[in-house]
Structure formats: C-alpha cells, structure tokens
Write a structure and sequence with these properties.
Strands 3-2-1-4-5 form a 5-stranded mixed sheet. With about 250 residues, it is an alpha/beta fold. The N and C termini lie far apart (about 50 Å). The longest helix is centred in the middle third of the chain and has 32 residues, at about 130-160. The chain has helices at about 1-10, 15-20, 65-75, 80-90, 115-125, 130-160, 180-195, 210-220, and strands at about 30-35, 40-50, 50-60, 170-175, 195-200. The protein has one domain (about 25-205): ATPase, nucleotide binding domain (Nucleotidyltransferase, domain 5). Bound molecules: adenosine-5'-triphosphate (ATP) and magnesium ion. Magnesium ion (MG) binds near residues 14, 18, 38 and 207. Adenosine-5'-triphosphate binds near residues 41, 174 and 178.
C-alpha cells in the first residue's frame, strides 16, 4: 500500500488545474490561447502541452479577481465579491462613471488594474445615493469587459503569429471566467477573430478538486511522478522563464 502511494504521488500546480480545466468537458488540442482570470492571477499564456506554457502577457499589479473583490469591499459586499458585483451591475447604469483603463494602448497584452482600483476607491467615498452603488458596479463591470476585450484581441494577434496550426482555440479559465457578461464579450471577440471560445462549466471556474484531479490524470497518462517530499510552493509560475513583472518601475 505504501509503495502504491509513493508510485502514484503527483504534485499539482493549481494554476495548471485552472489551465487544463476546460479539458474535463471538451475535446481540446494543444496549443491553445489561455486567459487565466482568477483571484491572484491575470495572464495570457500559449499552452503548448502539459507543463509547457509560454506567457504572452500578465498583470503588472492587481489581478482582475482581486479588483472585483476590492470593489465589492468598498461597496460593503463580503468576500468573494465578484458574483455580487455581477448582480449589482445588472441594476446600474454602465455609463454613469467614466473609469480609467490603465495601459490599454500600450504594453502589448500586459494588463494593469491598480489605477482602476484607486479611481473606484475615490468615487466610493463620495457616493450620494444608494443607487450609485449599482452604477459604480455597472461601470466597473463594463470597464473590466472593455479591458479584457482589448487585451485579448492583442493576445490573439500574438498567438496567431506563433501558431501555424489554423485551428485557434481561446480558453478562458479561473474564477472570473464565471462572469456571464465577460463570457459573452469574449465569445463575441472570438467570433470576430476566428477563435473557438472555450470555458469550463461555471462550477469548475473557481478552485475545485476536479480540476486538480484532472491535471493529475493528464500527468499520470504521460508517466509523470513526483517524490512524496515535494514541498508546497507559494509561488509556482506556469512559465518559469517569463520575467517577474510586478512592482514599481517595471518596464512593459
Ligand atoms: N461571477 C463572477 N464575476 C467576477 N468575479 C468572480 C465571479 N465569480 C468568482 N469571481 C472571482 O474569482 C476569484 C476566485 O477565483 P479562483 O478560485 O480561481 O481564485 P484563487 O484560487 O483565489 O486565485 P489564483 O487561482 O489566482 O491563485 C475571486 O476573486 C472571485 O471574486
Ligand atoms: Mg485558483
């Protein structure tokens, strides 16, 4: 029994769980373009195979899920705030507040949300009427949609230049991929750019055991094995060669 356990042990990077999660329900071939939008990450990656990732772009400050959660907190909503912001947004006017879209026209498909967070903070301190909370949620939701639309378009162009295979798939995974309006915006873009959009089912977007088990199955099929003394890693990038792009003075 002890030997069996040792022979079957696999260390899974939970980001790889997100990256492969749509494969649980879809027949999906490598390579594909991945937009990982979660509580701690916002990245575009070219997924070439198991353990083979090329980062095309990343957030240089906050993650998009973090931006949802911080906005929610300012509106008095408990963590995780993403789903509630989506609900609030339905009741508000998306054009009520004009929010910034940092580095929207520069930095390739790198992203930034810190300036947006600061703008939301300032506005939230001066709300006059209760319904302005809904307007702020709607304006925030729309701004995120616009940023992801524009940056995904840039990432698609980069991916097409690198991918000689004509079948382009665009996978959107991570907790924020549950957001229905973000889904429809990125489906629309995929049609325009001739990509097949693929999402995990909503209940497999945020962290879940099935995606970890699936990543384990894929690695097991390839004959991978890890030592049982493998240490947990707080920071385990999918593309270990990509430069760290966070902090003051970062060049994009
Ligand atoms: N409908 C939604 N709209 C927007 N954001 C959402 C929605 N549902 C969940 N989220 C956000 O998704 C995040 C949680 O996703 P996930 O579990 O993938 O993140 P994490 O594991 O904490 O971060 P990471 O995977 O980067 O380490 C939270 O920030 C949450 O607010
Ligand atoms: Mg996660």
């Amino acid at each position: 029994m002890q030997d069996l356990w040792i022979n079957l042990f696999l260390a899974i990077n939970h980001l790889e769980g997100h990256a492969l999660s749509p494969k649980i329900m879809n027949n999906l071939n490598f390579p594909y373009l991945l937009l990982l939008i979660s509580g701690g990450h916002t990245q575009f990656l070219k997924v070439n195979g198991i353990g083979n990732y090329e980062r095309l772009g990343t957030t240089i400050d906050d993650a998009v899920g973090e931006a949802f959660d911080k906005t929610a907190k300012l509106l008095g909503i408990e963590f995780p705030g993403g789903p509630k912001i989506e609900e609030y947004a339905k009741k508000g006017d998306k054009n009520y507040f004009n929010l910034p879209k940092p580095i929207i026209n520069k930095g390739g498909c790198n992203l930034s949300f810190a300036g947006l967070k600061t703008a939301v903070l300032k506005i939230s301190k001066n709300l006059k009427k209760e319904e302005e909370k809904f307007h702020l949620a709607a304006s925030f939701q729309k701004t995120i949609e616009d940023i992801l639309y524009k940056k995904s378009k840039v990432a698609m162009k980069l991916f097409k230049e690198k991918n000689k295979n004509k079948n382009n798939s665009f996978v959107i995974a991570g907790g924020v991929a549950s957001n229905k309006k973000i889904r429809s915006k990125l489906i629309h873009l995929s049609k325009e750019e001739n990509f097949k959009p693929i999402f995990p089912p909503i209940d497999l977007c945020s962290d879940n055991a099935a995606m970890i088990a699936w990543a384990g199955i894929e690695k097991f099929r390839l004959g991978h094995k890890d030592k049982t003394n493998f240490s947990a890693r707080a920071r385990w990038p999918l593309d270990a060669k990509a430069p760290f792009l966070k902090g003051a003075g970062v060049k994009i």
